[in-house]
């Protein structure tokens, strides 16, 4: 099962998992989901992604995950910028 950007309230999860029962990577990949272009949405820039994550703290996203992200958020931005500047970078369309 693909668990992407897990929210705190998952009443309809097929696996019956909730909160911390989800694997950590499934709880922590919202930045990538927000900053990646999808066929149904445009990508968010770094600041918009950070604001969305901060606003969802405690409602959509687990506070501990958000707090950990906020400590290292600039590293996420630097990595994204480095990838975008790379000639080999090909974003998903």
In total, the number of strands is 0
Largest sheet entry: none
Provide a count of the helices: 4
What is the helix content? Answer: 40-55%
Radius of gyration: 14 Å
Question: First CA to last CA: what distance?
Answer: 22 Å
Principal-axes geometry comes out as globular
Average pLDDT works out at 76
Strand coverage percent: under 5%
Provide the structure class.
mainly alpha
In N-to-C order, the SSE pattern is HHHH
Low-confidence residue ranges: 1-6, 8-12
In brief, what are we looking at here?
The longest helix is centred in the last third of the chain and has 23 residues, at 63-85. The chain has 93 residues and is mainly alpha-helical.
Notes on the protein architecture:
The chain is mostly helical. 46% of the residues lie in helices and 0% in strands. The protein is globular. The N terminus is likely disordered.
């Amino acid at each position: 099962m693909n668990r992407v950007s897990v929210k705190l309230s998952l009443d309809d999860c097929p696996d019956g998992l909730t909160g911390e029962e989800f694997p950590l990577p499934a709880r922590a990949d919202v930045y990538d989901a927000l900053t990646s272009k999808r066929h149904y949405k445009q990508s968010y820039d770094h600041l918009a992604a950070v604001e969305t994550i901060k606003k969802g703290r405690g409602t959509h996203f687990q506070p501990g995950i958000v707090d950990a992200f906020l400590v290292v958020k600039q590293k996420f931005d630097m990595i994204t910028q480095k990838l975008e500047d790379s000639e080999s970078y090909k974003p998903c369309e």
